[in-house]
UniProtKB/TrEMBL annotation:
Transmembrane segments: none annotated. It comes from Leifsonia williamsii. SUPFAM superfamilies: Periplasmic binding protein-like II. Residues 61-286 form the Solute-binding protein family 3/N-terminal domain. The keyword Cell division does not apply. This is ABC transporter substrate-binding protein. Keywords: Signal. The keyword Signal applies. Residues 1-16 form the signal peptide.
Amino acid sequence: MRIRSAAPIAAIAAVAALSLTGCVDNSTPSSDSTSSAAAVDVKKDDSLANQLPEKVKSAGKLVVGMDNTYPPNEYKDDNGKPVGWEVDLTKAIAAKLGVDVDFAIAKFDNIIPSVAGGKDDFGMSSFTDTTEREQQVDFVNYYSAGILWAAQKGKSIDPDDACGLKVAVQSTTYEDTDEVPAKSKKCTDAGKPAIQALRYDTQDDATNAVILGKADALSADSPVTLYAISKSNGKLEAAGKTFDEAPYGLPVAKDSELTPVLQKTVQALIDDGSYGKILKKWGVEDGAVETADVNAASKG
């Protein structure tokens, strides 16, 4: 989870070109089933649009912070443009509100500060809603995700018994900051060798570390792991099952006028079926929610 911090579900999609060619097939598929060109048609809701803060109305757009290195949730296509199911969902939110989207591409760690400081209107980058993060921003919840490990095909790896192993993670994700360190502490508390977390700036690099044998396994949000497996040319397989499900959320500045508008808009997309169509198009419908909540972590 991009708690980055947190976790996801099931998915298969396309992805951008990778620097380590020959390891993962990262070509963007031409099929409309996973192309942002096949975005779901969404009609503007005037009543919701009228509730937008004056700043957004005047600009005629939403500035959305995104780190596009997390396929299939958000990544770059062969032309460098943002694609993924969360990109489609963001565009659907904007269409429902009758405004454009300006994707502010940034490093993951910089997005919440940009939202909290008013530079971005909200973020969309697989953020796990946590009580710690809720001290900085509010979250409009739109998905339920979990953690899934993967290893080289035929290599038996147990996420609950990984002492002494090397585990690849994307830096600052929940897997990096919470999950793997907690597992490692259990190992050392029991007198066993620690888990060595190998941290990478992008998920593609973490995936290739396992394919190339530099790491024993990878830990990531389940849609991301399933994507990695599907693009590995049969070199990777799931290690265990999905665990630790948690809510994804759109970070919005604390007490912002935009928060209730986004909550109502996401709920409207759920109710009119647009949300479900987007998730189904990308194969991530297992994580669908029926209610767009706000700050679910502190309620759970």
